[in-house]
Amino acid sequence: MVAYFLRRWLLSLLVAITVSFISFMLLRLSGDPAKALAGESASAADIEFVRVKYGLDRPILIQYLDWAGRAMRGDLGESQFFKQRVTDILGNRLGVTMTLGGCALIFAVWVGIPLGILASLRPNTWVDRFALTLSVLGQAIPTFWFGLVMIIFFGVMLRWLPISGSDTWRHYIMPTIALGYYATPAFMRLTRTGMLEVLASDYIRTARAKGLRAGKIIFKHGLRNAIIPVVSLAAVQFGFMLGGSVVIESVFALHGIGFLAWESIARWDLPVVQAVVLLLSLIYVLLTFAADMLNAFLDPRIRVK
Amino acid sequence: MNPQGMVTGALGAGQGVVFPTPGQMMRRRAYRHYGFIFGGVILVLILAMALLAPWIAPHDPYYQDLERRLMPPIWQSNSTWNHPLGTDNLGRDYLSRLIYGARISLLIGLSAMFLSGLFGSSLGLIAGYFGGRIDMMVTFLITVRLALPVILVALAVVALIGSSLKVVILVLGLLIWERFAVVMRSSTQQLRSMDYVSAAKATGCSTPRILLAEILPNLMNNLIVVATLEMARAVLLEAALSFLGMGVQPPLPSWGLMVSEGKEFMFFNPYLITIPGIAIFLLVLSVNLLGDGIRDITAPESST
What is the reported pLDDT for A70? Predict the structure, then answer.
C-alpha cells in the first residue's frame, strides 16, 4: 500500500508540475508579454524598461520557477481589471463553482445509479431500452442550449425559477440539471455493466440459494461490489463538471470561477485566466489521486498489481 | 408441427441449405439495427444539405434585409413561405443560414476528428506496441491532457491567437486526441502478442509495416467507433466555443453562433435558438447512433 501510494503521489506531482508549466506558457501565446503590459502606445524604450522591470528578459525556465514559487505561496499575480490579488478573487468565487459542481454530481449519481440498477435487473427489456435511449438522446443535447431552453420554459413561460444569478438555492436548480444530465449516462452505463457482471457471479447465486431477500442481494451483495469503479468515475466527472462550469455559469450568469474565466478572457485579464486553468487542473489531479487511493482502499486487488 | 419436426424436416431437405457469409450476416445485422439506419439516414441528409447548399438554399445566407427582421417561421402567424424558418435579427433567411451552417459543423467535426485521430492513434499504437518507457511517456501525456479543462483551454487559446476556422480546428484537434490514444493503446497491447504478429516479425517485416499493415487493419473497427464519438464531441465543442464568442466568427453561419446571436431575442422569438439547437442535436445524435451501430454490427459479441 505504501509503495502504491508513493508511486501514485509521484505521478500526480509530475502531472501537476507539467500542468502548471502549460498554464504558465498559455499566456505567452498572445505574443510579447512586455508589449502587452506596456500598453498600445508604448515606445521601444518603454517596452524594454517593462521587460527588465518584470524580469521578462530572463530565460523562460527561470521565469517559470519564479512564478511557480510565488504561486505556491499563494501569489498568482494581480488582476488587471479588478486591481486585486488573483487568489483573493478566486477565493470569493470558488464556493459557487464547487456548490454547482457538487449539486450536479449528486444529481448525476442519484439519477444514473438507480437507472443503471433497474436496467441491469431487467436486461434487454423496455426498462433497459428506455434507459439506454435516454442516455443516447442526452449525450447529443448541447449543454448550453439545454440551459437556454430550460430558461425559456421554466423561467419565462412557467415562471417557476429565477433565470440568472446565484443568490438562493433556487438559482442552482436549472444550472445543476444542465450541468449534471450530461454525466448521468456514464453513471448509468457503468452501474449497469458492473451490476450485470456481479449478478452473474457465484456468490450471488449462493445468496439466492440461501433464500436471502432480493433487496438485500441487490444492494448489499451486488451494488457494493459493482460500485467500486463508480467511485473513480465520480471523481473524474466532478473534475470535468468543474471545467464544464465555464459554459453553464455563463448561460445562467452564476458568479463562479467559470464565468469569471470567460469574462476575463473577453476583457484580456490574463492572470485570472491563467489562475483558473491552473486551479481547475490541480483540482482534477487531486481528485484522481484521491479516487485512486479510495479505490485501493476499497479493493485490495488494485494495490497488489 | 412440433419444433423438432421442423428441424429434421429442414435437415432432410438440407442439400439446398446455404449458410450466409460473414458479409451477408453483417449486412443483415445492419438492416435490423434501427439506430444505425436512423443515424445513417439523418447523417446522409445533413451531408447532402452541406454539399448542395448553394442549390437548395432559397436565399443568400449573408443577405441582410432590415425591413424583414425577425419574421416568424411558417408554423406561426404572420409568416410567409418566402422564409420558411423565418429571418434573424438582421433579416437574413434562417433556413439558408441553417443549411450553410451544416458545412461549418461538418467541416470542423470531420477535420478535428482526422487531426486528433492521426495524433492520438499514432501515440496509442506506438505506446501499445513498444510498451516500457515509451508507454509510460504516452500514458503520462494522456494524464496531463485529461487534467486540463478542455473548454477553458480552448477558449483561452482561441482568444489569444485570434479565432478563425483554421484555429478552431487545430485547437480542437490537438485537445481531443486522448480517447484515440487510450483505445488504440489497449487494443494494440492485446494484439501485439498474437501469432500473426510474431510471424510477421519472423519473416523480417519492418516495424512500421507490422504496425500499419498487420496491427492497424485489425483495429479499424475500434478506430471507427472512437472516431464517431470524437466527431460528435468536436461538433458539440465547436458549438459551445462559438456560443461563447470564441469560435467561428460572424457573419459565418455556425449553428452554435446562431444560438448565441438568437439569445438576445429568445424570450419573444424562441425559434431563433430552438431551430439551430435542434440541428446540432440531430447531427450529434446521428453520428453517435452510427458509431453505436457500427460497434454492434462489426462486433456483436461485445454488446451486452
Answer: 83
Number of other CB atoms surrounding residue B246 within 10 Å: 24
CB proximity list for A95: less than 8 A, separation 6 or greater: A256
Out of A29, A137, A142, whose CB is closest to B239? A142
In order of their start, the domains of chain A are: 92-267 (1.10.3720.10)
Say if A232 is an interface residue toward chain B (CB within 8 Å): no
- The answer to whether B161 faces chain A, any CB pair under 8 Å, is yes
Q: What percent of chain A has pLDDT over 90?
A: 15
Task: Check residue B302 and give its pLDDT.
Answer: 56
Angstrom distance (rounded) from CA A237 to CA A251: 20
Beta-bridge mates of residue B93: B87
Does A241 touch chain B if contact means CB atoms closer than 8 Å? Answer: no
Cα(A129)–Cα(B295) distance, integer angstroms: 17
**pLDDT in the model for residue A128:** 83
Query: Which residue in A190, A217, A215 sits closest to A202, CA to CA?
Result: A217
Least confident window among A78-87, A113-122, B166-175, B249-258 = A78-87
b (16+ CB within 10 A) / e for A287-299: bbbebbbebbeee
Q: What is the pLDDT of residue B5?
A: 41
Look at residue B14 in the predicted model and tell me its pLDDT.
Answer: 53
CA angle A105, B147, A95 (to 5 degrees): 45
Average pLDDT over residues A267-289: 89
Average pLDDT score over residue span A202-216: 81
**Residue B152 forms contact with A (CB below 8 Å):** yes
Grid cell digits, residue A172: 442552482
Is some CB atom of chain B closer than 8 A to the CB atom of A139?
Answer: yes
CB contact under 8 A, B281 and A142: yes
pLDDT at B191: 86
Which of A7, A195, A238, A265 is the best mutation test for B, with the most CBs of B within 10 A? A265
> CB of B34 within 8 Å of any CB in chain A?
no
Q: Is the pLDDT of residue A119 over 60?
A: yes
In this prediction, residue B9 carries a pLDDT of 43
Amino acid at A257: I
The verdict on A2 touching B (C-beta cutoff 8 Å) is no
Mutate to test the interface with B, among A144, A153, A285 (most CBs of B within 10 A): A144
Contacts of A243 in chain B (CB under 8 A): 149-152
Q: What is the least distance, in Å, from the CA of A206 to any CA of chain B?
A: 24
Of the candidates B87, B98, B108, B133, which has an alpha carbon nearest to the alpha carbon of residue B230? B108
| Three-class SS state of B87 | strand
The mean predicted confidence, pLDDT, of chain A is: 84
Question: Å from A175 to nearest chain B CA?
Answer: 16
- The ranges of chain B with pLDDT < 50 are 1-12, 303-304
Phi-psi region of A254 (alpha: psi -120 to 50; beta: other; left: phi over 0): beta
